[in-house]
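Study this pair:
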Amino acid sequence: MAKDTKMEPLTGKDLVKKVKELDHLSREEKAKECGYYTITKNGAPRVNMMKFLNALIEAEGIQLDNTQSDANGRGGRSASYRITVQSNGNLLIGSAYTKQMGLKPGDEFEISLGRKHIRLKQINGTDSEADDGE
């Protein structure tokens, strides 16, 4: 990217692709190369990390708040990363977590109980740990 011309910040798949290409650079350099900077009165570039990181999170499909679901008319609670034992003794892990992890109906887990934790090991490979509020 030329130093004297400001590009429009990348978003979506283009942003993710560019960040992967720039794996060797620092976070600030990646943000600048993707167009997330402004030029100060002194002519120096100022990197806007918050906008860059938010755009990257959105591009990866991770929803940190429920503004998108409100926009399309479907409300719902946002993930709090805490669960409570229900009156029937069950622990319910909501869809916000399973979506974030990319789980699909039918995915199976092996359960290991510790003194104050529950470990879920996905049968096809990856590990996930659910804390009981310790």
